């Protein structure tokens, strides 16, 4: 990512907030507007608590603030309120929302016909980018169904961080894949008497934002202790906005996660680089804390939770979890007891089915595979596949794979890693096995099996603990991502060319080694052979799961309590190497344990700017005996879209 710009000091302050402004008002965002016929406006509450909008007013480009009649005087957390403009809205116009005390909450502008049928936030209600002329109106509901399948390049530029702490600095971030010209774009604060200033005339002057890069500049019109920043393009269409309450931008108000999600007050300003996401609250609008929800129940006979082992410190520079603060325990107590593991624990790898995003797959160390479906906010075995899971074997139907990780290939098959045979657990057996989930029967044998054991002699000591430090996770990465991002093939020293490996399919497999936290890259050939593409350093002491997330376009290496419950997002750098980009810690309300599995739902499941994230506890220990999490394997939270 690119760091751009130096900073200077702004001069003017915006109006102060009235005492009557309700807590959490900066979380209320204009979410959709139409200038076609009924001139409807939709507001959305991005916060976790309800906000009263009683007595609020609106104005457009030609009339003074007037009261309006909303569908409700209170907006619930994650809820919508709609109203019709009392004076109508023009083909090209400006809409401003005020609290009853006169503080500007949000504003949006559009050029001729750009709000027909609607102008809406896309990519997340209340947090997404403004997209003019969406295909359909969705008032009172999520904008997702009315948004285009691809967000325009200009709309991928976001206000990412802002500070009113002396320098009055604004940071823009380009989350797209191409540079965006911003030389004629303008910005303004919440003082309606101020004229918009151009980015290019500010200091430092900027005319373009590179893909994945930043631009910072100082506001020439100043930014107050409680204020707003609004960004418009050269046609007068709003691109993005942010509002903060008193002291909410000191030291800064930042998006979490970087480039997406809602704003919060930071503990450390990170202008020109990835947001710290280490603060709390909502831009001065009120503090928030997370909650661990659900769980409980009595242990079944033979169910024996196992306390976590190997706890280490969190690496320096790890950021706070960018998704929701609340986490829900998402399985029944002792749900995964089997004939080869009656203790109920040992659920490890997780993966969402890319073809069926409402389906989650899981493997249990003692050779069991599960297809899970959601029922009343819990993930339970899908009885149409198997209510008790299916046992998996090595090639030829032998042994008991110590199954640790799983991923989906482009062919819809499941690929499972094993680090040893549980019938001979003192010897390593680091393999990747291919299973057809549509195969019938209660026991599955692999269509293909690739054995890499000889590559790791350090694990073959005759000690079962050493043999248990092999392949913990695996992630399938499509060739299209590797080539589009310029990954350099370690075998040739040139840009990766999939055609050089005609038997490998359409992607590579990245297996995570618990022993030292490295990733090992393989092409799995249809004739049973494999190509080894070398080793990648993740910066972690161990890797417990590996996930490729198409939403963030990142490969994720997960580590449990050994590394402080963290997830490192990997990218391809300018030199063509796969390197760490940013690391996040689990939500603070989760227990510290052997949380070995991690999966993020596809973006097609997004609701209100978030999608599900799921963790698995290998030991089902939770917070210990007597706690609501004791005896449970699965936890469900949210991650930004």
Could you name the key traits of this structure?
single chain; 641 residues; mainly beta; 6-stranded mixed β-sheet; 5-stranded antiparallel β-sheet; 2 helices; 2% helix; globular
Largest sheet: 6 strands, mixed
The average pLDDT is 90
Sheet-strand content, in percent, reads: 35-45%
Q: What is the β-strand count?
A: 45
- Helix count equals 2
User: Which residues sit in consecutive blocks of at least 5 with pLDDT less than 50?
Assistant: 1-19
Structural class: mainly beta
Principal-axis shape equals globular
Give the terminus-to-terminus CA distance: 20 Å
Radius of gyration: 26 Å
**What percentage of residues falls in helices of 4 or more residues?**
under 10%
Notes on the structure:
It is built from two helices and 45 strands. The protein is an all-beta fold and 641 residues long. It starts with 27 loop residues before the first strand and ends with a strand. Helix content is 2%, strand content 37%. Strands 25, 26, 27, 28, 29 and 33 form a six-stranded mixed sheet that branches. It has a five-stranded antiparallel sheet with strand order 7-2-1-10-11, with no helix packed on it.
């Amino acid at each position: 990512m690119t760091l751009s710009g130096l900073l200077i000091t702004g001069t003017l302050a915006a109006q102060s907030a009235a005492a009557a402004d309700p807590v959490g008002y900066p979380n209320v965002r204009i979410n959709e507007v139409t200038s076609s016929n009924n001139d409807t406006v939709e507001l959305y509450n991005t916060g976790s608590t309800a906000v009263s909008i009683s007595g609020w007013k609106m104005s457009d480009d030609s009339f003074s603030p007037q009261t309006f009649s909303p569908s409700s005087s209170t907006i619930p957390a994650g809820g919508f309120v709609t109203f019709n403009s009392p004076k109508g809205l023009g083909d090209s116009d400006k809409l401003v929302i005020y609290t009853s005390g006169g503080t500007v909450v949000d504003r949006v502008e559009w050029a001729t016909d750009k709000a027909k049928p609607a102008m809406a936030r896309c990519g997340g209600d209340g947090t997404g980018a403004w997209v003019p002329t969406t295909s359909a109106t969705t008032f009172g509901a999520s904008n997702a169904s009315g948004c285009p399948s691809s967000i325009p390049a200009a709309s991928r530029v976001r206000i990412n961080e802002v500070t009113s702490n002396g320098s009055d600095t604004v940071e823009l971030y380009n989350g797209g894949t191409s540079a965006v010209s911003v030389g004629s774009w303008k910005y303004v604060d919440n003082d309606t008497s101020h004229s918009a200033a151009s980015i290019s005339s500010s200091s430092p002057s900027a005319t373009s934002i590179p893909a994945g890069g930043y631009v910072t500049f100082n506001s020439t019109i100043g930014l107050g202790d409680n204020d707003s920043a609004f960004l418009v393009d050269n046609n007068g269409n709003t691109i993005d906005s942010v509002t903060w309450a008193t002291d909410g931008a000191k030291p800064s108000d930042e998006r979490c996660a970087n480039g997406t999600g809602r704003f919060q007050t930071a503990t450390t300003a990170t202008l020109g680089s990835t947001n710290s996401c280490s603060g709390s609250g909502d831009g001065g609008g009120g503090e928030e804390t997370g909650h661990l929800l659900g769980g409980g129940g009595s242990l079944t006979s033979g169910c024996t939770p196992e306390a976590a082992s190997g706890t280490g410190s969190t690496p320096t520079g790890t950021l706070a979890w960018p998704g929701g603060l609340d986490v829900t325990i998402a399985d029944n107590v002792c749900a995964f007891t089997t004939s080869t593991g009656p203790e109920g624990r040992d659920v490890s790898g997780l993966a969402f089915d890319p073809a069926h995003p409402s389906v989650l797959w899981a493997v249990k160390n003692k050779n069991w595979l599960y297809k899970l479906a959601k029922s009343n906010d819990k993930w339970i075995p899908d009885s149409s596949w198997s209510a008790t899971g299916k046992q998996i074997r090595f090639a030829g139907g032998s042994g008991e794979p110590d199954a640790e990780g799983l991923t989906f290939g482009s062919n819809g098959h499941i690929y499972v890693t094993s680090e040893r045979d549980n019938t001979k657990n003192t010897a390593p057996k680091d393999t990747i096995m291919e299973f057809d989930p549509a195969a019938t029967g209660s026991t599955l044998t692999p269509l293909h099996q690739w054995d890499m054991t000889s590559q790791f002699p350090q694990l073959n000591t005759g000690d079962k603990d050493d043999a248990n430090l092999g392949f913990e996770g695996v992630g399938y990465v499509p060739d299209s991502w590797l080539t589009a991002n310029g990954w350099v093939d370690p075998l040739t020293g040139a840009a990766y060319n999939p055609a050089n490996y005609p038997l490998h399919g359409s992607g590579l497999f990245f297996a995570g080694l618990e022993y030292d936290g490295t990733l090992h890259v393989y092409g799995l050939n249809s004739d049973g052979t494999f190509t080894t593409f070398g080793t990648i350093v993740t910066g972690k002491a161990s890797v417990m799961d590996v996930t490729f997330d198409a939403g963030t376009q990142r490969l994720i290496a997960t580590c449990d309590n050994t590394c402080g419950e963290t997830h490192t997002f990997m990218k391809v750098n300018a030199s063509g190497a796969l390197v760490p980009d940013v690391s996040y810690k689990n939500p603070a309300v989760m227990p510290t344990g052997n949380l070995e599995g991690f999966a993020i739902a596809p973006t097609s499941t997004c609701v209100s700017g978030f999608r599900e994230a799921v963790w698995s506890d290998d030991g089902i220990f939770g917070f210990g005996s007597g706690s609501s999490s004791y005896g449970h394997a699965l936890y469900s939270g949210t991650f930004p879209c």
